[in-house]
Structure formats: C-alpha cells, structure tokens
TrEMBL record:
Keywords: Pyrimidine biosynthesis, Transferase. Catalyzes the condensation of carbamoyl phosphate and aspartate to form carbamoyl aspartate and inorganic phosphate, the committed step in the de novo pyrimidine nucleotide biosynthesis pathway. Pathway: Pyrimidine metabolism; UMP biosynthesis via de novo pathway; (S)-dihydroorotate from bicarbonate: step 2/3. Belongs to the aspartate/ornithine carbamoyltransferase superfamily. ATCase family. It comes from Actinoplanes sandaracinus. It holds the Pfam family OTCace. Heterododecamer (2C3:3R2) of six catalytic PyrB chains organized as two trimers (C3), and six regulatory PyrI chains organized as three dimers (R2). GO terms for molecular function: aspartate carbamoyltransferase activity. Coiled coil: none annotated. Residues 152-302 form the Aspartate/ornithine carbamoyltransferase Asp/Orn-binding domain. This is Aspartate carbamoyltransferase.
Length: 306
C-alpha cells in the first residue's frame, strides 16, 4: 500500500480498485445503528484546513471518528497561521504531537508534497490550490461504479471551469487509470490550449456541450470558481449558463440511464439548474454520503489496516 495520497497519479488501477472495494465494505457499516469500527483506535488524524470547506472537512472528520481515531481539527483562522506561522513550523508542531495522518487543504498547489517531507505520518491531499483533490475523484468514481455498475469504458463528460478545478484534474487521472473515456468540456478561456494539450493525451476536449451530452453516461458539472479568477473569462453569468449550464432541456439530451454529478458547492442557476440538481438523475447528495465511506477506506488502508 502507498504511504501518502497526494495525487490521483499515486494510484494504479489495482490500488484504486482496492480503495473502492474497501469503501463498499465501509458503506455497509453506515447502515448500522452503531457506525463505529475500532480499526484506528489510539491513532491520531489531524485535519489541517487552510482553505474553506464544508463537505470535505466534515467528511474526513466523520470518517476518522467512525474508525475510532483521535481527531484534531485545525483551521488556519484562529490559529498561529494568522500570526504568520509557516507551513513548515505548523508541520513540526503536528509532528511533535505524533500525528499518524495529516489531511491537508491548502491554497498553494503542491503544499501536501512539501508537508510529506516534514512529517513522519501519512499525508492526504484534501485539495491543493488548482492542482488536485484525489479523494474527491475516488468518491466520484465510487458513485459512478455504484450507480452504473462499471468504470471501464464509461463515457464521462467533465464540464465547465476546468482551468481552476482540482476536481477535474484528479478525475481525469483516476478515471483514465480505471479505463473510463473522459471528455473535458468548457469555454476555450477555461480550457486554454496548454491545458487542452496536457489533457488531450489522455482525454478528448470539446467546446460544445450540446454535442457531447447524447453520448455521455456521466455528466459532471464543475463550479465556476470566481474566487480564483483575476480576469473575466466569459462575458456574463447569463451567457455562461446559456452555453455551458445544465438545464432541463439539456438533461433530456442525455441518454435515459445517464447521471448528473457535481462536487459541490453549487452555483444553482449558473452551471446547473435547480431542477436538474434536485432531479432523481442527480447523484449530488449520494456523492457526499459516499465521501465518508471512501475517506474511511483511504485512512484505513494508508494507516496499515488489514
Ligand atoms: C471542490 C473543491 O473544494 O475543490 N469541492 C469539494 O471539495 N467538494 C470543488 C469546488 O470548490 O468547486
């Protein structure tokens, strides 16, 4: 088993499948009245969150607690980080406390890689800048597999603000490793040529959502990340929705069996219409529930569970 999960590229098909299978066993536990396993009793998991998060942070916390680990939640706001403490000094503090695993979210791409040099425990990337978010890709793959029964040969469209999306990057890596056919869709400003070239070795690139929908098993919508945009990448929110928003008429262009995904948080009415987000074809709430099982599997396997 690998020691760290910094990138979806850390996972070969065998390891990724082991995590998904273990997550399925963990999911069986969520149906029970007592949702706890003693697997990580006496181990310490630190959640180190330098960027805002709802789903990912509580999901990692629930996962660690269901495995009986001791959980320490650290958020940069209210800590010595606001006094200017560096990531390295924070890492050395965690190391002194004997963290067995550090789950980190940071605005700097590459922060988890640096951290892994400074602590003895396992490092799990919970989102670094615009770079990667590997556990999101795992929970997305898990959701596709449980809804559609397979990943090999599945046609997945990843739509929207690809440029700023660590979710897209990790999904492209993981899904192609697991045999899915990925098409990345969005406006040319949000899939610039260098990104398209880097992606197109493994995936297809399209600027025309309507052309891609009829041939997709999965349509994964991405949030437009205005907080990471210094320029204007499209004329207006309305124009963006008209070209790249998933509304009800577009939902009808998808095959009957196809599902709609979104990692959250959503801009309802922009990249996704409320009726689509709340439709039975949407797996958005399921993705959150699956996130806990997948993160349990990741912590369990990285910390040497059998
Ligand atoms: C994503 C993230 O933070 O990268 N959200 C998540 O983890 N569920 C996507 C986003 O912020 O749009």
């Amino acid at each position: 088993m690998i020691k760290h999960l910094r990138s979806a590229a850390d996972l070969d098909a065998e390891t990724a499948t082991l995590i998904l299978d273990t997550a399925a066993e963990m999911a069986a536990l969520s149906g029970r009245e007592v949702k706890k396993l003693p697997a990580l009793r006496g181990r310490t998991v630190v959640n180190l969150f330098y960027e805002d998060s709802t789903r990912t942070r509580i999901s990692f916390e629930a996962a660690a607690k269901r495995l009986s680990a001791d959980v320490i939640n650290f958020s940069a706001k209210g800590s010595s980080v606001s006094k200017g403490e560096s990531l390295k000094d924070t890492a050395l503090t965690l190391q002194a406390m004997g963290a067995d695993a550090v789950v980190i979210r940071h605005s700097a791409s590459g922060a988890p890689h640096r951290l892994a040099n400074w602590v003895d425990g396992s490092v799990v990337n919970a989102g670094d800048g615009t770079h990667e978010h590997p556990t999101q890709a795992l929970l997305d793959a898990y959701t596709m597999r449980s809804r559609l029964g397979r990943l090999d040969g599945l046609k997945v469209a990843i739509v929207g603000d690809v440029l700023h999306s660590r979710v897209a990057r990790s999904n492209v890596l993981l899904l192609t490793t697991l045999g899915a056919q990925v098409t990345v869709v969005g406006p040319p400003t949000l899939i610039p040529l260098d990104v398209a070239a880097a992606l197109s070795e493994k995936t297809q690139v399209s600027f025309d959502l309507d052309a891609v929908l009829p041939d997709s098993d999965v349509v994964m919508m991405l949030r437009v990340q205005t907080e990471r945009m210094q320029d204007s990448y499209f004329p207006s929110a309305r124009e963006y929705s008209r070209r790249y928003g998933l509304d009800v008429p577009r939902l009808h262009k998808m095959p009957e069996h196809a599902i709609v995904m979104h990692p959250g948080p959503m801009n309802r009415g922009m990249e996704i219409a409320p009726e689509v987000a709340d439709s039975p074809r949407s797996t958005i709430v399921e993705q959150v529930a699956n996130g806990v099982s997948v993160r349990m599997a990741v912590l369990y396997l990285l910390l040497g569970g059998k």
